[in-house]
Amino acid sequence: MPSNESTVQFSLNGSPASVSPGEGESLMTALRERCNILSVKDGCSPQGQCGCCLVLMDGRAVTSCAVPVTKVEGKEVITLEGVSAEERLVLADSFAEAGALQCGFCTPGLVLRTKHLLEKDASPDREKIAKAIDVHLCRCTGYTKIIDAIERVAYKRRGEDLPERLANPRNPIRRADGTPPITAKRGGVGDRLDRYEARQLALGERPFVCDMQREGLLAGAVRLSDHARAKVLSIDTSKALAHPGVVAVATAADVPGARWYGLIHLDWPGFVAVGEEARCVGDFIAAVAAVDAATAQAAAALIEVTYEVREPITDPAKAIEPGAHQVNPTRPNAMSHTRIRRGDVDAAFAQSAHVVEGDFKTQRIEHLFLEPECALAEPGEKPGTFKLYTQGQGVFDDRRQVAAFLAIPEEDLYVELVPNGGAFGGKEDMSIQAHAALLAQMTGRPVKVLLTREESIRVHPKRHPISMTYKVGCDKDGVLTAVQAEFLGDSGAYASVGAKVLERAAGHGCGPYKVLNVAIDAIAATTNNPPCGAMRGFGANQASFALEGCLDQLAEKVGLDGWKFRMLNAVGIGDTFASGQVFEKSVGLKQTLEAVREQYYAARAAGLAVGIACGIKNSGIGNGAEEWGKARLVVEDDGTVSIYNGYTEMGQGLLTVLIQFAVEVTGLDASLFHPKVDSTFALGCGQTTGSRATLFAGNAVVSAAEKLKTQLDAGKTLANLRGEVFAADIVINDTTPPGPLKPGVTKVKTHTAFGFATQVVILDEQGALKKVIAAHDVGRAVNLSLCEGQLEGSVHMGLGYALTEDLPCEDGWPVTYKLREIGVLRARDMPEVEIHLIEDHEPEGPFGAKGVGEVGLVPTAGAVAGALFAFDGTRHYELPMKNSPAAKAISVGNIKRAKA
Amino acid sequence: MKSFELARPTSLDEAIDLLPKGRGPAEIDDARPLAGGQDILTEMKDYLITPKRLVDLAGVAGLDAYQSAPDLVLGSLTRLARIAADPQIALHHRALSIAAESVASVQIRNQATLGGNLCQRPRCWYYRNESVPCIKKGGAECFAESGLNKYNAIFGGGPSYIVHPSDCATALVLLDATVTKRGPRGESRMPLEQFFTLPSEGSVVRENVLKANEILVQVEVPAPKPGWTSTYLKFKERESFDFAMSAVALSARIEGDTIAEARMVLGAVAPIPWRAGEAESFLAGKPNTHATWKEAAEIALAQAEPLEHNGYKVPLTKGLIQKALRELSGGESK
After folding, report:
1. Among A24, A645, A728, B30, whose Cα sits 20 to 30 Å from the Cα of B63?
2. Domain residues of chain B, as ranges?
3. Is B200 near chain A, with CB under 8 Å?
4. pTM listed for this prediction
């Protein structure tokens, strides 16, 4: 036990504080666990590389995870909780008004930074602000709006009026039909409504799962496999159980129900059992519940595991060779093979004036959501029931899988979404939800399991590295004739949704271009690498990079510039998608090309290197999946209206746009609506994925709100309607799977809707990023700020994908866990991003909207590659393009290798 | 800037008594000596350090020694402007004269002291960003190693990759200067070359052996041996005034067509003034020709280990070395 000698005394937000820290404890841990300071977030401890845990220590802004608490003895520590009420208001308002936050996990650190920066420098310019926030990593926003917010605070502090560009931001909307932009009603569709709970998020007051407290709460820790491939011979938990403070240790032997889970295939064990093989370095061997996190982690390390270490299969090409060791016992290594055939590619190539071929390769990408995986489970009021607080992208999938794991009926597991600190696809699969629940079941106490950043990187699925062989032809005028492609994706040890990612890559293999002859094959291979699954773009990004590279080469052969070549081949109404679906509505691609034309040619005329690419991304999973939108509007006793739906808020802004739909329909004030995601109602819709939540949940909310509106129109008030539930379930079951149509079905419709984009990347005289122009057909911009924010954030992620982001693995192990090395761009690395929105009404979407979550980074890498070719004549076939002047000008992404 | 106590002692012992009692880095924030204030005040404004007390050395007797050439004695409070303006120094210790004049701007040289110049902290922007928990500030890693390292070390790096920013240090190591420091246990003298420490050798959070409770008293430079001349070449990104991207301090004794002896110290390429010993040995007794200069430059840079963004320092420094040799040869080779 800590003795008095180890007591650290300091001033915390103006009051004396005294803590008795554990060995090596950081200031961040002491603040969060001993002082109940929860505005300080743990994004990467102990790296000090994300800025989420920023505090002021004797006036100095420090990342508190990198400061041992013993160093604060006698010092003065200020957190957001200790900032004056007036100042908090200005800070929170400015961030909310500027749309400067999405998931909100990094925001409290940035808000405190703002205060600190402006006290030193009352009027910093944007470049200075970008440098000042270098310590802070934001994965959502692309930083533009964060810098806007900091500028807003600066103007307000100086008592000056906001300049026009901040007070009334440029309206980026053009209606595809040439009509003037629709005037939005306050809080309705098209308004810049502040994000739901933005102010609480900005100040760190809205708890994430990791912030939740319970009486008698235990902390969980996990023990992961020590090898990428090894047979587990024995697991000895006796030392861990004997460790003081440990309450329970769980292994495969303790799982009462279905130990294997998975979104599509049940091929992923919650624990690897003795006698089985561990298949990747993220496999779970055991989990520990103890009185605090440090004790649980120490005990997890005491678990003795003996292995028979085996050679991991890490090369996807070798994995699918005949005779290769079968990595996952449930299925062959070639997990899936998607095949698309239209027309006659051989004949088309034979008649083509120009044909180019290329082998392209993309890298494994870490989502790097700022909030690592965390789940809290506790016994329910009724014996045998449990509550699970999760940050997953599909709480009903979590419920189904966890209930089966615990061997309890689904009704006995109440699941509530706690909107997460970023996901981007990386929180679709189960991570530690089942482990938290099992430990709660074993101990009868609430248990919270939080992964460290390193564990998080080992556990959750990544973006697929895909090798692509492309062959593309066109006639003498530049009209595309045929596309032939073969994809091989490394899907890692578990299925996740990897087969679907390769299916989507194949389906998007011709991009948004008219191609009549298509032959595409895509194989998802199983290896002992970390699993790969969903990540924003879902296969479309990889295919786009390769295809756009081929188009640039064809354009050069024909003698057309990139813009003209793409305009010539761009799809419109009546043209056919790679899957065979004929576009019938909301195809704003050509308008996005028109939107960038002037600047594209102006930059070329100015002698700058310019690249251009187009993108397409399905909105809605489609491909034959039955999809749902489900909503319940409940009039509460206090006269507010709860909006229940089955999809997840993860920073993208779903809950905010659902409010806007309800406002638009009912005319009620936005403040009356409170969105909720839990299992009160059976609203299971599967994962929040495929840019579909706005589309489907939106339609359901519109439909439910119309029922409420009927009552209001009949003279009822909310007070009269207390306790009433307005329900709407909508189903989409008219999409068709790839391949031959079923008997009786005559029309190919693989997806409900599509987003379209054109992006232009301009480099400066040194070949560094100068400007990105992103023009997107979004159907209808439901919330202008959020829509811009999605695209700015996408471009940020796309630029990282193009230039610096990578998570290479050696022998199945990620070679780094450091945030700067993984290569997500910092504010100083971001060029100016200019957004243009085209509204080409989507008749199947709510008020004409369609999903915008993913398409924003589909074309980016291709456009960057084009600009780099224009700069120095180098064609790039591999991502990331680290060996380019644009990448070298960026402050991150250089992976430090251990010196030989 | 955080508020602090300003102590104004009049004697060295009094000043030392006002400095931290402990010697280690943990105490260094308790109190710091203040000389010209040109570096420490910017560090305090940026919250890199938050000393509770500054011990102003301006009124301390015994730090203002000044004996001009040929045997130089320079108290640590000597202003750089005075060194730069001294014709005797320009005559006998030309490298120091040029180096002192190359520091920053005239306003800064009027205020900055020699002691402060030698003890100034690194310019690495990760170090200068208060929130980056870099190894120089007690953190776990050097962010420059894999980050934006255009201005960082090509020699002697690891675990920190800073370069020493002092021009005078490079020149004074060349000129075989001796430094005197004083602490609670009295005075000690050492060659200036041993005063500076590599991050892998000494404490990674310091650049020299000076303890938290010690004060640099004075620097002595011996009169040049007969026949030796010296120079200092500094390459700056900004012509008006700036820190060096690379610098070469060179002295040599040239006899006719032969370089009899030479000494070479490189600046802004390593965490300490970087002695190019192998190039010195090579030059001894070599014909004073273009080919020799070129080979000396190659040898001096042979062991360089550039990082991602500072590979330019290798050819740049080679060029400076050849230029310096040419200069000491009176223009062209024979």
Report:
1. B30
2. 228-328
3. no
4. 0.90
Write the burial class of residue A684 (CB in 10 Å: 0-12 exposed, 13-18 middle, 19+ buried): middle
SS3 A813: strand
Number of alpha carbons in the 13 Å side-chain half-sphere of residue A694: 33
Q: Which is nearest to A371 in space by CA: A186, A207, A537?
A: A207
pLDDT band per the 50, 70, 90 thresholds, residue A694: very high
Indicate the helix (H) or strand (E) that contains A792: helix A784-803
Q: And the tokens for A367?
A: 């989502």
DSSP character for A40?
A: S
For an interface test with A, the pick among B48, B148, B305 (most A C-beta atoms closer than 10 Å) comes out as B148
On chain B, the residues whose CB falls within 8 A of the CB of A46 are: 140
User: For chain A, how many structural domains are there in total?
Assistant: 5
Q: Does residue A329 lie in a domain region?
A: no
State both tokens at A401.
């899988």
| Cβ neighbourhood burial of B30 (10 Å; 0-12, 13-18, 19+) | middle
Whether residues A584 and A633 share a domain: the answer is: no
CA distances from B102 to A883, B96, B109, B170, B207 (A): 36, 10, 9, 12, 21
Amino acid in position B182: R
Nearest to B76 by CA among B231, B241, B187: B187
Q: Is the dihedral of CA B147, B151, B155, B156 positive or negative?
A: negative
The residue type at A490: D
Confidence band of B332 (pLDDT split at 50, 70, 90): low
Residues from chain B contacting residue A820 (CB–CB below 8 Å): 143, 146-147
Q: Are residues A15 and A97 in the same domain?
A: no
- In 3D space, the residue among A633, A776, A758, A631 whose CA is nearest the CA of residue A694 turns out to be A631
Domain match, A641 and A713 both: yes
B48 contact residues in A (CB cutoff 8 A):
60
B228-328 maps to CATH 3.40.720.10: no
The residue among A891, A895, A897 with the most chain B CBs within 10 A of its CB, best to mutate, is A891
The residue whose two tokens read 């982001």 is A805
Specify which residues A173 forms β-bridges with: A837
Where residue A323 falls (left for φ over 0; alpha for ψ -120 to 50; beta otherwise) is left
Residue B43, chain A, CB below 8 Å: the answer is no
Q: How far is B2 from chain A (nearest CA, A)?
A: 7
Nearest CA in chain B to A897: B146
Alpha helices in B199-312 (DSSP H): 277-283, 290-301
**Terminal Cα-to-Cα distance of chain A (whole angstroms):** 42
Angstrom distance (rounded) from CA A99 to CA A104: 11
Return the closest-CA partner of residue A166 out of A92, A108, A90, A95: A95
CB–CB contact B131 A120 (8 Å): no
> Residue A133 corresponds to which tokens in the numbers above?
């926030």
User: Over pLDDT 70: what percentage of chain A?
Assistant: 99
Distances (CA, A) of A488 to A505, A542, A615, B281, B309: 10, 11, 21, 58, 35
Tell me, what CATH number does A41's domain have? Answer: 3.10.20.30
Say yes or no: B48 contacts chain A, CB-CB below 8 A. yes
Average pLDDT over residues B77-95: 97
pLDDT tens for residues B237-270? 998 999 999 999 999 999 999 999 999 999 999 9
Q: With contact defined as beta carbons under 8 Å apart, do A618 and A753 qualify?
A: yes
Q: What is the pLDDT of residue B333?
A: 45
Identify from A62, A766, A819 which residue to disrupt to test chain B contact, counting B C-beta atoms within 10 A and taking the largest count.
A62
Q: What secondary structure does DSSP assign to A722-767, as a single string?
A: TT-EEEEEEEE-----SSSPPTT-------SEEEEEEEEEEE-TTS
Is A317 inside a domain boundary? no
Residue among B50, B52, B56, B53 nearest B37 (CA)? B56
